[in-house]
Amino acid sequence: MSDDARERCGLFGIFGVPDAVENTFLGLYALQHRGEEGCGVASSDGKHIIYHRQMGLVSEVFSPELIEKLRNPHAIGHNRYSTTGSSISVNLQPLVVSTAKGEMAVAHNGNIVNAAQLRRECESRGSIFQTTMDSEVVVHLMARPGRGDLIESLVDALRELKGAFSLVLLVPNAVIGVRDRLGFRPLCVGEKDGTYVLASETCALDQIGANYLREVEPGEVVVISDDGLKSRRFCDEGEVRPHRCIFELLYFARPDSLVFGQNVHLVRKRFGVKLAEEHPADADVVIPVPDGGNSAALGYAERSGIPFDFGFIRNHYVGRTFILASQTSRDTKVRVKLNPVAEVVRGKRLVVVDDSIVRGTTSKAKIGQLRQAGAKEIHMRITSPPHRFPCYYGIDFQARQELIAAGRSEEEIAKFLGLDSLGYLGVDGLLDCVQPPRDSYCLACFTGDYAEEPPEHLHKLVMEEK
Ligand code: SF4
């Protein structure tokens, strides 16, 4: 995605197989794109939970020796990029705690929007928090005395949470999956050799040879144990109002995954077809900004009849250290990641397809590269509507002033970026391309219509933009 807006966190869980930890390692490996800051695995022998968490990529953290050390039949794993809670190793997950009700490990994807208030309430009752993560409130709520067994305590705790949370939990004799009542973040169930697997995306199921069964439904708790898979709701049916994050389909998920029951590559290709219908261009070649624009550029080329080509080549070996070096200029960072193919773009009228423009600085650098390589005209086509509102459900572009489309017209943005023309896919066009029902998606970062009232500090900004 342009400008480093990222949803971060990948979840995986598997119950009752001898190689549960190897499978979790492979699942996290497939989900690496959802979080590169750090990772962790917790496993159980049916009585006790052991774990390892560390900053770094899955391939860097888990050696064969470590996998052997963690060997147990039940396991969960987590890939993290910080959403709420700062980027320090104490905030890595799974979060593992021992309570009067037993041991448990929690892995979380999303952002619990009332976490600060719940934390204050827990602290006033004497809870001592180990981390700055919003996810920790879940275990403190569960640990309250007098609320039945762990599953009942979990259901009670979930009723108090607001915002986005897909969770995978491990207790000594079960793996548990949860999706919030609005279903922002994906979580699916697979099956392998008679047992069940949980994963953020189906690419992790494919990785271990598991079959996709279904999504965990919004508002559902699935408990996988020796009794098989048991399902229950933690809220009333009337409280379930799906608001699936459209950015999962636009950018976050891997194109080979099924997310919200639909193949991500084919959805993106349809975005490209629709974009060609809404914003045609007189051009010689369609090029994607890799990797986010690849599938949509194919769709645009097919619909418009303009040839597709690779005008940028992406370096797949860019390490995190380089990207994190704050003194490095934006231009240099972009140049390290993407290099234009001068022989494809020189003297040509280009349609450049990308998934979104957030802050605009990265897009400007990419356009500059294409001009330097000799592009004659540049017509940028974006597979999402203008990004004008902040997200507070776990995406790290939160301040309105960071969003280039907030308070600016498309002409002003095109001028700032140095484009000959700019076209955004409209909200209706976007919804024409995804599986119905149309009102089951969150589009708040385009429309400002949030599923839940924005927190106080964002409310004024949202009203100003509207
Ligand atoms: Fe996704 Fe945007 Fe909704 Fe955030 S506001 S959950 S990024 S669609």
Low-confidence stretches: 1-7, 320-325
How are the strands ordered across the major sheet?
A: 3-2-4-1-10-9-11
Helix content: 25-40%
Bound molecules: iron/sulfur cluster
Q: How many helices?
A: 18
Draw up the topology in text.
Layout: E1 10-14, H1 20-30, E2 38-44, E3 49-55, H2 58-61, H3 64-69, E4 74-80, E5 95-99, E6 102-112, H4 115-124, H5 136-142, H6 150-160, E7 163-171, E8 174-179, E9 188-192, E10 195-199, H7 202-208, E11 211-215, E12 220-225, E13 228-233, E14 244-245, H8 246-252, E15 258-259, E16 262-263, H9 264-278, E17 285-288, H10 294-304, E18 312-314, H11 320-324, H12 330-337, E19 338-340, H13 342-345, E20 349-354, H14 361-372, E21 377-382, H15 410-417, E22 421-424, H16 427-432, E23 441-442, H17 444-447, H18 456-465
Description:
The chain has 466 residues and is an alpha+beta fold. The strands form 6 sheets. Strands 3-2-4-1-10-9-11 form a 7-stranded antiparallel β-sheet, with helices on one face. A 6-stranded antiparallel β-sheet has the order 5-6-7-8-12-13, covered by helices on one side. Strands 17-20-21-22 form a 4-stranded parallel β-sheet, with helices on both faces. Strand 7 and strand 8 form a beta hairpin. Helix 4 packs across helix 5, helix 5 packs across helix 6 and helix 9 packs across helix 10. The chain is globular, with a radius of gyration of 22 Å. The N terminus is likely disordered. The protein binds iron/sulfur cluster (SF4).
